[in-house]
Amino acid sequence: MCAGNTTSMHEKHQGVAVDAPLYPDRVLLLTELSMTTREQFACVCEHDADHVTDETSAVAALEQAISARDEFLSIASHELKTPVTTLRLQVQSLLRTATRDPRAILAERQIMNRLESIERSAEQLTTLIDRLLDITRVTTGRLHLTREPLDLVAIVRRVIDGMEATLRDAGCEVSVASPEHVVGEWDDDRIETIITNLLANAVKYGARRPIEVQIDDGDDTVSMDVIDHGIGISQDDQARIFGRFERAVPERHYGGFGVGLWLSQQIVEAHGGTIAVHSTPGEGSTFTVTLPKRTP
Ligand SMILES: Nc1ncnc2c1ncn2[C@@H]1O[C@H](COP(=O)(O)OP(=O)(O)O)[C@@H](O)[C@H]1O
Ligand SMILES: [Mg+2]
User: Fold this and answer.
1) CA of 264 to the centre of ligand 2 (A)
2) Measuring from atom 9 of ligand 1, which residue has the nearest CA?
3) Which of 64, 132, 230, 286 meets the CB 3.0–4.6 Å disulfide criterion with 207?
4) What is the pTM (predicted TM-score) of this model?
């Protein structure tokens, strides 16, 4: 019964996937998203095996997946372009100066400023690409944790140091209230991703007000709160923002993929932990991550 549907759906799915070679820079995203479509198709097909009449809803589900993919691609391209544009402007400016007078030596401070800006843009790009890779790994079930003894407080401080320029530009201050060390067995890069996502959100949606990170060390678990005093999130939106591509703000005001919280939740759950939000619109948000200190 499903076979008849399979052919037409499969053709439709293939029709989506063949776009990939036209946009080599988007192949990664298409791989991830066509996987979603494929999974969705498999589920829909299995679920509808005995209900041919449900074909319409299966088609609607596929169309929704395709539309989510298209929206994601356009946001992803936009996000990736921002640091590349800054990077190119700085490099072009350095090249212009060097071409005008090859022997001219730019003031040391001027060179340093531009190199720092190039470095920042390259760092942003690396973070974005790493995140896209992780999204693909989660979606295709290939996210394997590498656990090792780590100090959560040290990771938080490392992330804050790495975000120094962003925090300065946003006029945000971050304070950390924690014991000196909180040690557990976690995946270093992935824990860094969670903290980066939560802090980046606190900066983006935090209305330039101070941000606090609080870490509580328990016997078997550790809990970390990232607190901001920004725009907050309505009760209805709180229920959906951990979903993939779910956003509760207009794109023209705040850029973003809508995957940071989704990815963070996937990573937290892979560690056997939980992530939750408490928020009042207009007053701010608190995101709480709880992690077991050892493999559950
Ligand atoms: N600290 C916060 N304050 C207010 N809203 C937030 C906060 N963090 C996340 N959100 C809301 O949750 C949505 C999903 O967040 P996220 O997955 O990080 O995606 P993105 O930041 O790319 O939009 C955001 O679009 C925003 O509406
Ligand atoms: Mg975000």
Assistant:
1) 10
2) 201
3) 230
4) 0.70
Taking a C-beta distance cutoff of 8 angstroms, is the pair 199, 174 a contact?
A: yes
Give the number of the atom of ligand 1 that is nearest the alpha carbon of residue 228: 1
Place of tokens 């530009």: 169
Q: Residue 219 C-alpha to ligand 2 middle, in angstroms?
A: 31
Listed by start position, the domains of the chain span 1-143, 148-292
Residuewise pLDDT in 10s, the chain (296 residues):
333 333 333 323 322 222 222 223 333 333 334 444 444 444 444 444 445 557 788 888 888 777 777 777 777 777 788 888 888 888 888 888 778 776 666 667 778 888 888 888 888 888 788 777 777 778 777 788 999 999 999 999 999 998 888 888 889 999 999 999 999 999 998 999 999 999 999 999 999 999 999 999 999 999 999 999 999 999 999 989 999 878 888 766 777 778 899 999 999 999 999 999 999 999 999 999 999 999 87
For residue 91, how far is its CA from the centre of ligand 1 (angstroms)?
A: 32
Q: What is the CATH number of domain 148-292?
A: 3.30.565.10
